[in-house]
């Protein structure tokens, strides 16, 4: 009862035909036998019904033409065996003639109706199967992140449709621009590892022309295969070259005995190819948009950096040049204390400039995604210690205090970047407040919390998010009225470093005034100490 | 008087360092490239090399390798920025210490002093005694005490501390510490180092979060504060 799937006739199709014919003949013989048995007990019209039944049954599996042939033979047999005069094809009386005529007409009608029904059922089944394939391929394409996975998904479907699965389909997808000559390495290939040169030439032709050809297509119909272009969305303008939206091509080999391939299946295969074409087109557009966005971001960054260099970097430079030139031209007239002051100023400004350069460099690299984090297991106690050692120079009154929860686990971070982050935050706190500054580390809700807290004037709610952006500075609301300087890069770098570590940096206003800059980083399970049984003996004599 | 070879391609910085070192009474030879430095090293006696990382004809690792084949001349690496990973490679390959630009002359002189104190450590007996700020470590008797009170260290803690004492004042990379204390197959087990350094700090330091002896160089290694004068203090004083 199974109709063969569109392209792949079941193995031993002829074997099946013989079986169907034998079953039909058996049916006829059975009908004849039953009619024989009933002969004499029921009238002729009832006997005719047995043959009608046989025709109906046979119509379940025979094609319409065969079932019609069978019906005619059945009616002839009935006429020969049961309609008087028996043993001849002549018919006695109008009544019998009418009976024969009606039996034939009814049987033929039933056979035709059955055939139609079966065709429709086949069609529905095929449509359902094709819809399922389209849906599955669509899902696979949406889930795929790169053209290679997309191509593999289509190839799997095409191969399953081909008569020579899994080598019955070859798919090629261009890796970039369409090359001037047919270069194998310009495309990615799926399918036959060593494809037929004619087929390869056909694929390139199909790709370049963006047209389908092969069996039953009206173009190179003598070929036992379909050549299907993988087309993207068609261009609006009809004069645009077709190849400009063709991403690849596929060949689907047909069964050689399949003399009349189904145009609907071909359309289906083409639809699948176009599905890949659209997906590749979307992928290409997304990539282009992303590249454009990156370029725009990089452009914005360059402009911002230029602004920083031309303005913010000039301020400390002016201070250095001023101090140095003053020492050069006025040295003998300056008191010793003033000379020392100028020398200190040069050194301080140089260090500030170096920090700004470090922040600028780090920010450019982090924003461009160029920094490969050098993560290692680090001890917060050590990192905090290193930060304190560095900031003490700017903290002669020892305003910075570290408070670390005992027994903190190791963290997996880039030590240089994390110390830069903490140093920026501490510098910021020293710069924008006058009281004590607290550097605190503790566990909280399964994360590690690192906070730098001050008792400064705080940051206005409207600015709490803005200050993390590049080249933004908090309004100078300090009561001390000390001039504040900087590139406004420090906090942007801090946030970029936090993000690169999968952490979060935020600002919280403290209860009794002041700010708390809080970094939360994931706290992975630190490796256990599997102490080697025999630590190497240190070389005492070295 | 020392013979110093200064390998630096920037003429201004070269001139400035040269005059600063000459004021200290050293004789300075300068080279602007690895090739030039190699030629000079072949013909001149040098007591100390200052090697910049960003040279036009290479990062100086070949120079260091050649130098280390015959001599134990101290080599101080000058790196352009903190995150330059090449300096760690050079330190592991036998360079004595590093400085990151910009640095003060005070820092440079302090590093040079420490490096010279360790000069010839591969030939002559190394430093076996460390006495600084109440901490007394005697490698000959394996005795460690803090303000006169003996400290009890585990064998691994002691090995770690002893390794740092032998390079007092100089940075010792993570890799070098792991290889010398645990063995060459443990060079990636940084967490051992973190945990044992934490234990050592707890025993030796008054405030573990702001150590005075066991200094951390993030991303590079550890440094036992110089017993002559701590490098940071020296830098501060002279800067």
* Tally of contiguous helical segments of chain A: 12
**Share in β-strands of chain B:** 15-25%
Low-pLDDT segments, ≥5 res of chain A:
1-12, 475-483, 533-542
Say how many strands of chain A there are: 12
Residues in helix, % of chain A: 40-55%
What is the residue-mean pLDDT of chain B, rounded to a whole number? 87
Tertiary shape of chain A: elongated
SSE order of chain A, as H and E?
A: HHHHHEEHEEEHHHEHEEHEEHEE
What letter string, H or E per element, gives the SSE order of chain B? Answer: EHEHEHEHEHEEEEHEHHEEH
The major beta sheet of chain A can be summarized as: 5 strands, antiparallel
Secondary structure category of chain B: alpha/beta
What kind of sheet is the major sheet of chain B?
5 strands, parallel
Number of helices of chain B: 9
Helix content of chain B: 40-55%
The CA-CA distance between the termini of chain A, in Å, is 90 Å
Secondary structure layout plus pairing:
The complex is a heterodimer of chains A (542) and B (239).
Chain A: H1 13-38, H2 44-58, H3 64-81, H4 94-143, H5 147-161, E1 169-174, E2 187-190, H6 197-209, E3 213-214, E4 225-231, E5 246-253, H7 263-312, H8 314-330, H9 336-367, E6 375-378, H10 380-391, E7 400-404, E8 411-414, H11 415-432, E9 437-444, E10 447-453, H12 490-500, E11 504-509, E12 515-522
Parallel strand pairs in A: 7-9
Antiparallel strand pairs in A: 1-2, 1-5, 3-4, 4-5, 6-8, 9-10, 10-12, 11-12
Helix pairs in contact in A: 1-2, 2-3, 2-4, 3-4, 4-5, 4-7, 5-7, 8-9, 9-12, 10-11, 11-12
Chain B: E1 3-7, H1 11-23, E2 27-31, H2 34-43, E3 48-52, H3 61-70, E4 75-79, H4 86-92, E5 97-100, H5 105-117, E6 129-132, E7 135-138, E8 143-146, E9 149-150, H6 155-166, E10 171-173, H7 174-181, H8 190-204, E11 214-217, E12 221-224, H9 231-238
Parallel strand pairs in B: 1-2, 1-3, 3-4, 4-5
Antiparallel strand pairs in B: 6-7, 7-8, 8-9, 10-12, 11-12
Helix pairs in contact in B: 5-9, 6-8
């Amino acid at each position: 009862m199974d109709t063969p799937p569109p392209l792949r006739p079941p193995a031993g199709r002829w074997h099946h035909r013989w079986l169907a014919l034998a079953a039909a003949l058996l049916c006829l013989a059975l009908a004849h036998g039953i009619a024989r048995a009933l002969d004499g007990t029921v009238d002729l019209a009832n006997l005719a019904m047995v043959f009608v039944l046989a025709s109906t049954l046979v119509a379940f599996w025979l094609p319409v033409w065969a079932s019609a042939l069978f019906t005619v033979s059945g009616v002839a047999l009935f006429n020969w065996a049961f309609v008087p005069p028996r043993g001849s094809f002549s018919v006695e009386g109008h009544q019998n003639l009418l009976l024969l005529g009606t039996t034939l007409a009814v049987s033929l009608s039933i056979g035709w109706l059955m055939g139609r029904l079966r065709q429709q059922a086949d069609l529905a089944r095929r449509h359902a199967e094709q819809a399922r394939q389209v849906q599955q391929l669509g899902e696979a394409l949406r889930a795929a992140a790169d053209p290679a996975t997309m191509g593999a998904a289509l190839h799997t479907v095409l191969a399953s449709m081909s008569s020579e699965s899994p080598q019955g389909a070859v798919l090629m997808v261009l890796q970039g621009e369409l090359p001037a000559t047919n270069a194998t390495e310009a495309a990615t290939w799926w399918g036959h590892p060593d494809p037929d040169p004619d087929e390869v030439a056909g694929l390139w032709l199909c790709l370049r022309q963006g047209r389908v050809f092969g069996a039953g297509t009206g173009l190179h119909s003598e070929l036992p295969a379909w050549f299907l272009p993988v087309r993207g969305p068609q261009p609006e303008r009809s004069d645009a070259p077709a190849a400009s939206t063709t991403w690849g091509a596929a060949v689907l080999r047909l069964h050689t005995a399949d003399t009349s391939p189904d145009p609907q299946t071909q359309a289906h295969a083409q639809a699948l190819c176009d599905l890949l074409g659209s997906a590749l087109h979307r992928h290409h557009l997304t990539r282009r948009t992303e590249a454009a966005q990156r370029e725009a971001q990089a452009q914005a960054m360059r402009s911002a950096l230029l602004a920083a260099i031309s303005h913010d970097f000039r301020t400390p430079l002016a201070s250095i040049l001023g101090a140095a030139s003053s020492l050069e031209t006025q040295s003998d007239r300056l008191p010793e204390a003033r000379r020392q002051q100028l020398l200190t100023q040069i050194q301080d400004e140089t260090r500030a400039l170096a920090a700004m350069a470090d922040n600028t460099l780090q920010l450019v690299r982090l924003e461009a995604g160029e920094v490969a984090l050098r993560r290692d297991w680090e001890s917060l106690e050590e990192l905090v210690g290193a930060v304190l050692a560095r900031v003490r120079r700017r903290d002669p009154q020892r305003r910075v205090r570290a408070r670390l929860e005992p027994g903190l686990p190791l963290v997996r971070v880039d030590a240089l970047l994390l110390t830069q982050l903490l140093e920026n935050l501490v510098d910021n706190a020293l710069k924008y407040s006058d009281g004590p500054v607290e550097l605190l580390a503790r566990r909280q809700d399964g994360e590690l919390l690192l906070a730098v807290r001050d008792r400064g004037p705080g940051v206005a709610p409207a600015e709490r998010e803005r200050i993390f952006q590049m080249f933004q500075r908090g309004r100078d609301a300090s009561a001390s009225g000390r001039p504040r300087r900087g590139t406004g890069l420090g906090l942007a770098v801090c946030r970029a470093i936090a993000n690169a570590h999968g952490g979060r940096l935020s600002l919280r206003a403290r209860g009794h005034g002041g700010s708390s800059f809080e970094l939360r980083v994931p706290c992975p399970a630190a490796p256990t100490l599997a102490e080697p049984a025999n630590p190497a003996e240190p070389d005492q004599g070295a | 008087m020392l013979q110093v070879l200064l390998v630096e391609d920037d003429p201004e910085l070269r001139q400035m360092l040269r005059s600063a070192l000459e004021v200290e009474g050293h004789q300075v030879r300068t080279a602007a490239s690895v090739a030039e430095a190699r030629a000079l090293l072949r013909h001149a006696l040098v007591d100390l090399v200052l090697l910049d990382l960003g040279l036009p004809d290479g990062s100086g690792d070949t120079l260091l390798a050649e130098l280390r084949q015959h001599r134990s001349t101290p080599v101080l690496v000058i790196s352009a920025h903190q995150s330059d990973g090449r300096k760690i490679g050079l330190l592991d390959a036998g360079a004595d210490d590093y400085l990151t630009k910009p640095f003060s002359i005070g820092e440079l002189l302090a590093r040079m002093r420490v490096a010279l104190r360790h000069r010839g450590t591969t030939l002559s007996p190394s430093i076996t005694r460390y006495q600084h700020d109440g901490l007394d470590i005697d490698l000959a008797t394996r005795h460690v005490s803090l303000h006169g009170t003996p400290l009890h260290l585990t064998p691994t803690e002691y090995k770690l501390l002893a390794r740092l004492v032998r390079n007092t004042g100089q940075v010792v990379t993570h890799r070098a510490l792991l290889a010398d204390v645990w063995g060459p197959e443990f060079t990636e087990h940084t967490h051992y180092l973190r945990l044992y350094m934490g234990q050592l700090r707890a025993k030796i330091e008054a405030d573990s979060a702001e150590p005075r002896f066991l200094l951390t160089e993030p991303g590079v290694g550890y440094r036992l504060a110089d017993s002559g004068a701590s490098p940071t203090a020296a830098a501060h004083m002279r800067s």
